[in-house]
Write a structure and sequence with these properties.
homodimer, mainly alpha, Arc Repressor Mutant, subunit A, 2 strands, 49% helix, DNA-binding
Chain lengths: 148, 148
DNA sequence: ACAAAAACCCAGTGGAGTGGTAGGATTAAG
DNA sequence: CTTAATCCTACCACTCCACTGGGTTTTTGT
């Protein structure tokens, strides 16, 4: 039940872009430095995010990325779906389930109701938070409660 | 965001034991046959479940496993925790977080609130369903709505 | 014109984890 | 004393994750 770094870094990067693109497009180099991530790895995330219509890109020097929609219209769930595929704790309880999913309909399927319930919980949690929410929170937490 | 087979098979096995242990302990061989799973793989799940106090075992011929608590007092979450470790969509939002978790408290941690919210959703979903619930459901679904 | 900065693309790679199998030792029933 | 079961440990094939690197194209600034 772990998110991969793709999803995690993707959200970090999108928040970074959201918070820094007021003065122009944000380069991956800048994101990588601020967030402490690998630039070349971020490239692999930016591609899909652009193709999915969450990011716009500007090529060439001084280029970079901007949000393709306003921050309030992009949810964490949107990002996760692009980078990790449809939300599905188990294969037989996927969001985009095809015609009918039959997992060798023995007693095993008894558990399916739990997995569907679990999936719906995850979907609700991820879709209920937008980039705007995270940005707002970030600004507020400026005087950050330091651990240690 | 996928559950591993350990968790899935573990729940299947526990339901099987719950539904078949009224006449005596249930052998892993029987579980494996009914559920279509590998017996030797199930052994690896039964060990931890026993040590965690969810299963009792009876060794020797005619031996097997019974629930260590009543079915209503064992949740799906209990099983998952034993077989997959603490519920934590990302490391910095684990259930059993130690003293303080600091994920390089740069802007990256901005997303932490989402992960915590996500974790809590998962925990609530998994802890709200007991083996008894699943057994009840299984009996009801006897005339099973066949796919195809 | 040209150098630098950026997005793009794609191929490869090391390590860790997943999903098992194999073999044996112990325990108890018939 | 054979058989059926739990128990324990080691091993293995495979996949996927997290990255790295090399190279191409596009644009800006000098």
């Amino acid at each position: 039940m772990k998110l991969s770094t793709k999803g995690r870094y993707g959200v970090m990067a999108m928040v970074d872009v959201a918070m820094n693109s007021d003065v122009g497009p944000v380069s991956l180099k800048a994101v990588a430095e601020r967030q402490g991530l690998s630039e070349s790895y971020l490239e692999q995330l930016a591609g899909p995010l652009r193709k999915a219509g969450l990011l716009n890109s500007v090529r060439g020097a001084q280029g970079g990325y901007t949000l393709a929609r306003e921050a309030g219209a992009i949810t964490v769930g949107d990002i996760i779906r692009v980078l990790e595929g449809p939300i599905a704790p188990v294969d037989c309880a996927s969001e985009d389930e095809g015609p009918v999913q039959h997992c060798a309909h023995s007693q095993g399927c008894v558990a399916k109701s739990v997995w569907v319930k679990l999936r719906d919980s995850i979907v609700r949690a991820l879709d209920s938070v937008s980039l705007a929410d995270l940005c707002e929170e970030a600004k507020h937490d400026d005087g950050y409660p330091l651990p240690l």
